[in-house]
Each structure stands twice: as C-alpha cells, then as structure tokens.
Amino acid sequence: MRPSILNPLFADITVLTGVGPKIAALIGRAAGPRVVDLILTPPAGLVDRSFQPKIAEAPTGKTLTLRVTVNKHDPPPKGRRLPYKVICSDETGFITLVYFRARADYLQNILPEGETRLISGKVEEFNGARQMSHPDYVTDPDKPDDMPIFEPIYPLTAGLTAGVMRKAVAQALKRVPDLAEWQDESWLKARDWPHWKKAMLAMHAPESQAELSAMAPTRQRLAYDELLANQLALLLIRKARIKSRGRSIVGDNSLRNKARKALPFALTGAQEQALDDIYTDMKAPERMVRLLQGDVGSGKTIVAFFAMLAAAESGAQSALMAPTEILARQHLESLSMLADAAGITLGILTGRDKGSQRRATLEKLANGEIDVLLGTHALFQDDVVFKDLGLVIIDEQHRFGVRQRVALTQKGPKPDLLVMTATPIPRTLSLTAYGDMDHSRITEKPPGRKPVDTRTIPMNRIEEIIAGLRRATANGEQAYWVCPLVEESEVLDLTAAEERFETLKAALGDQVGLVHGKMAGPDKDAIMERFYNGEIKVLIATTVIEVGVNAPNATIMIIEHAERFGLAQLHQLRGRVGRGDKKSSCILLYKAPLGETAKARLNVLRETEDGFVIAEEDLRLRGAGDVLGAAQSGFPRFRLADIAVHGELLAAARDDAELIIRRDADLKSERGEALRALLYLFNRDDAVKLLSAG
Ligand code: ADP
Ligand code: MG
To answer: How far is the CA of 395 from the centre of ligand 1 (A)?
Structure first.
C-alpha cells in the first residue's frame, strides 16, 4: 500500500483550484492526470523580469520591467472600437500602454493618474512611438511581491496557457510533503545536493538559465532520484525472478559435440564467450535471465541452438520464439541440418498451424518427442503444454518492455530465459531498459563478411538510382526499397510507400512488391516469402523488414528519407544486405539540404558497421528521447533524467541500488522505508509488490 503521506500527490489534478475537467484534460496531455505529474514536470524555460531599463533605453521584444509615472488615461471615443491608452513616462521619455477591449474602471483602479507603477512586459515600436500592449504585470512599487521577478515556463499543449499551467504547478507544489530522505546523506554532501523537497521547490523556481540546465545541482539530484528508482525497481524484479525457480541444467556435451562436427564453420570468440555465460547460468541453481545483444548477422541463432542442445542433453525441452511466422520458419530451415546431426527433434508451432497438425505437434510436445519447439507467440497459448520446459529463448524481442517480460515469464512454468536482440543499445540505455537481466554482447562478426558499400545520395538523383536498379535486377540481384511511412502525410512531406510502389512498378515491371505495417499478418508473410523465393526482385517496404528476415540474394538496400530514421534503425536495415558472398551496397537517399546533425549522423553510418559504436554515437548526437522514439515501447521514459547527459549518474545509481539490495533486500530499514516512498513516487508499484510486507 502506498504510504498515506504521498496521497496529496496522487490525487487527481481536478482537486486543484481552477482545474476543471476541461483544463484537466489539457494538463493531462502536457504533464499527466495526477498532482505528482505536475511536480515531476520540469520547467523548460523562464521569464526574467529583473531587467529594469529606462524607457529611452528599453529594447523592443524583450521581457523587462519599467518604473513609470502614470500621466493620463486616454479612453477611446464612445462606440468606437479603438484601444484604450494610458500615457506613462519616466525622466527619459514616454510610453503608451495599450489595451484592447479593456474595462475603464479596472484600468483606472490599477493605474491611477499621478502614481508610480511598475509595469512588466515587452516594448513595441508603433508609428515611431514606444508602447506596451497588455502588460503582464502592473504593480505598486510598495508591494514588490505582487510581481514575480522570475517565472517558470512549462511545456504546454494547444489551448493551455502558461499562466494556467503555472498556477496549477504552484498549487501542486504546496502539496509536496516532507518525506524522509532516501538518499545517502554523505553522498548528498559529497555532491552538494539539496534535500528532496528543497530540490523540488528549487527546480520549479529557476532564476537563471544555468539553473534550468540538466547539470544544475538540483536537477542532478532529482534525476538521480529517478534513476535510483529505476535501477532499484529493476533489481527487485530481477531478484524476485531469479528466486522464482531453481534448477540446474547441466548437459554431458554429447549432442553439442555432434553438432560441432557438423558445423561448417568455427564459432567466433564472442559466440564462445556468450555460450560460456549461458552455460554457467543454466548450471547455476538460480534461474537464468539473460539478454544476448548482437548485431544483425553476428550469429545469435547458433548460440541459441547450442544452449538448447545443452538443455536437451539434460532431458529438458526448449522453446525459441521469433517475432514473425516467416522468421520462425527460417529458423526451422537453417537449424534442421544441425538438429539431424545432433539427433534431436525440432517442432514448429505458429498461428498458421491448425487442426490435426497442431494437435499432433501438441501431443509430441506433451510426451517429450519434440526437443526444441520453434514458433511465434503462439508458443505461449494456454493449451501448449510441454513435458519439461527448461529453456525459453525469445529472439528479436526489443519491442517488449520489462513489464511484458515479467508477464510472459509469470505464466506457467518458469524456465531459464534468454532474450536475444539485434538492436545494439548503448550501455547506459540497456541498463535502464534491461537492468533486470544479465547481459552478454556479441561484438564480433563471423569472419569473411564483406563491408556494405554505403553512400549518401540526394533525392533528386532518384532517376539514376532507378536505372541502376534496373541493371542490377537484370543481373539477378534483389533489392529492398524502404520508405518511412505508409500514407502520404502532408505535414511531414514523406514519400508514401504506396506511391513509390506505383512509380517503381511503372519503371521495373511486375517484379516489384510492396509490404507495409498496415497489412494483415498472413498477407505480409506471403509477400515476404515471394521475395525470399526470388519471385519478387524489388521489395518496397516500410520498416517492417527491420525484423531479421534473411534473404541472402538481396544485395541492395535503398532507404528513402534516411535522415528521418534513427541511426540504429538504419544500421539494422543495412544489416539486411551483405549476408551472402556477393558485394552489397546501401544507398541512403536524403532530402537536401541536410542539417549539421543529420549530416554527422549519416556520416557515422558510412564510417562504421559496428552497431554498438553507431548506437553510442546516435545517443550522443540526438539525445535519449529521440534515439528511443515514441514507438520503442521497451524503454522507460524519464521525466527528470536524461540518459544522454546523466549517464554517469546512472552508473552510480546502479551501484547504489546493488548495495541497497545487498544490505536491505526487503527495504525494511529506515532508509528502506524511505526508498519505498521513492518507488511509489516514480510509479514503480510493480516492484514494491515484490517485496515481502514491510
Ligand atoms: P543474427 O545474429 O542476425 O541472428 P544469424 O544467427 O542469422 O545472425 O547468423 C547470420 C549468418 O551467419 C548465418 O548464415 C549463420 O549460419 C552464419 N554464422 C553464424 N556464426 C558463424 C560463424 N562463427 N562463422 C561463419 N558464419 C557464421
Ligand atoms: Mg537472428
């Protein structure tokens, strides 16, 4: 149960004065539906009214404050729709305050003739005279508190004004309770960081650009809180999962030895290392929960296969889940020879299998005839019962978040788990997204891979590209042509895949196919299969092909509007070619002119094929928010922390979280109690639930 001291923060924002259902919906979009969402929304800028020039020296267009004498009210003639003017002055000159549709009595009240007033706003020049229309503030200099010198500016949304948002946040801050400190006092001292409440209030009251920076001490402290909550939650999940079943799987190498003899190549050092990690985990009595990261083509499948052989040697079954039907069938095809050599039985189960065939597979699974089951998410349907499932491997799973992983492995038996992803993720990011797992990385590719010739070419040379494509397909080569979106979007000016399909069909004839994200699964699979068989020579696609389909004959990858893709995504796409022994090329078509960052990003791609290097560069160039993209559901979205700049804090938070768990695994100490509040504050109720009752 959430500590009651936090209740004021977890109230709906409609409890705030001036926030009715309509405003609540707008704030909900800009920040979130609860009070806590407001306090966790940092200001993006500030208004500074400390600049107090004389009228004659006041620049136009900049927020400032003038100290003036009110000379004369100049109301519009009755019935005329002219503005109401108030003439003011100081010793250097005159300024006219301009009000449209103003109430005279109100203006006379706040601007009495002959009195001195502070007015704040922006000066404009109109017909050679200085004026200020609708000043933000008009105050009595004897009451300085009536005008804030500094005001935070929050991210807004259409229909939500800065003032309304500011007032809502100010009220939310009044609800901030005094919480027991969850950070280590000596650590706070060493860093010169304030306590939480003080930091929170300071973050919302910036007085300079420096204080708005992510590196400001208050911002660092609050970012660290968020990162610590993230790491602590992941470690709690990990601990609960590892404890959830103990089983030691040790094989006798008999099957693996046979497979090794049949293998047409030697495993790379990186593959051997990954296997060592995996065997050690499987052998340990705790449950394996490991992430295997490796670039496209780095040879993860064979690693998975050897792990499954080790399981089979000890009599346990394995399941390998692929994200698509076609990938599952490719696994079956590529592993059959080795499976025969080792003497194990493969089975396959996808959404396509129905009726008697499916029943037969299920029966063989239940009686243990099938050693290794390949398939899609159909593997996890309720009626799929294994005789003795010891190992689950999930391939290309970067679309799943930690919560989904937890859900998946909470169902049914709890075998060892290996997750494989071909998306190289910067170290810091993988710690936030996969911090609940152990990590292995395959950083080396099998020998003999030819580099993919990568070029950047402006869109206006598309005719040349099409001509080249005609020659290549006549030579029997195959190509991918990737477009960013399915439908033409006027706003983004993206070339639609459908339109490109039409133009390429006109130029190249019937050998052109189209596959996109909005197609039904079986239709998509059918097209992919025709490409895979060589019936289709040029496959126009949205990024659905990102997921690891292997078409060895494909040697050309053309990516339209490459500047709009993430680098990791481009790298992934490029990895679709260069798989066979023929020379491959990748053409990054961009819309000129390119900005500096975009140019730098595309250059990274030309210079290296190391996905990990590319991922780190992308993070550096674009920042975490962009690298992940809204669609990448697997990554946590931080509100106060920015992984691109707070990487060092993340590493510290990881160490801190490990120490906390080692000393006080159930968060029962005084600090532990405070840390529970921290977890609730950042919505990690899922992790708190795993603790024994405090
Ligand atoms: P990915 O990591 O993208 O899943 P795959 O497992 O599909 O990569 O491997 C890509 C190709 O490389 C396959 O054809 C596979 O047989 C081959 N391969 C894997 N390991 C090696 C190796 N050590 N030496 C040579 N070829 C290898
Ligand atoms: Mg693969």
So the answer is: 14
For 634-693, give the DSSP string: TSPPPSS--TTT-HHHHHHHHHHHHHHHHH-TT--SHHHHHHHHHHHHTT-HHHHHTSPP
Ligand with the closest atom to the CA of 396:
2
Go through the domains of the chain in sequence order and give each one's CATH number. 4-47+153-212 (no CATH), 50-147 (2.40.50.140), 254-442 (3.40.50.300), 453-608 (3.40.50.300)
Taking the centre of ligand 1 as the mean of its atom positions, its distance from the CA of residue 504, in whole angstroms, is 32
3-state secondary structure of 402: helix
pLDDT digits (tens, 9 = 90+) for 129-148: 899 999 999 999 999 889 99
Strand 84-90 to 63-74 pairing: antiparallel
**Atom of ligand 1 lying closest to residue 296 CA:** 3
* CA-based max dimension of the chain: 102
Mean pLDDT, rounded, of the chain: 88
How many whole angstroms from 238 Cα to the centroid of ligand 1?
Answer: 30
Rg (CA), the chain: 31
Tokens for 369?
Answer: 């005839």
Q: Which ligand ends up closest to the CA of 338? A: 1
Phi-psi region of 252 (alpha: psi -120 to 50; beta: other; left: phi over 0): alpha
Residue 630 reports pLDDT greater than 50: no
pTM for the model stands at 0.74
- In tens, the pLDDT along 333-389 reads 999 999 999 999 999 999 888 899 999 999 999 999 999 999 988 887 778 889 999
pLDDT confidence tier of residue 629, bands split at 50, 70 and 90: very low
Ligand 1 nearest-atom number relative to CA 302: 6
Whether 188 contacts 195, CB under 8 Å: yes
Ligand 1: centre distance to CA 477 (Å):
21
Among the bound ligands, the one closest to the CA of 575: 1
Q: Are 390 and 314 in contact (CB under 8 A)?
A: yes
- 265 alpha carbon to ligand 1 midpoint, in Å? 10
Are residues 345 and 310 in contact, defined by beta-carbon separation less than 8 angstroms? Answer: no
**CA-CA distance, 496 to 489, in Å (whole number)?**
8
CB proximity list for 503: less than 8 A, separation 6 or greater: none
State phi, psi for 146 to the nearest 5 degrees: -70, -20
Residue with CA nearest ligand 1 atom 20: 299
Tokens of 573: 């796409």
Closest-CA residue, ligand 1 atom 24, reads 446
Residue 430, Cα to own-chain centre: how many angstroms? 11
Which residue matches tokens 């997204």?
433
Distance CA 45, CA 307 (A): 53
Residue ranges lining ligand 1, Cβ < 6 Å: 265, 267-268, 271, 294, 296-302, 422, 446, 548, 550
pLDDT at residue 617 tops 60: yes
Ligand 2 mean position, distance from CA 333 (Å): 13
Q: What is the mean pLDDT of residues 218-236?
A: 95
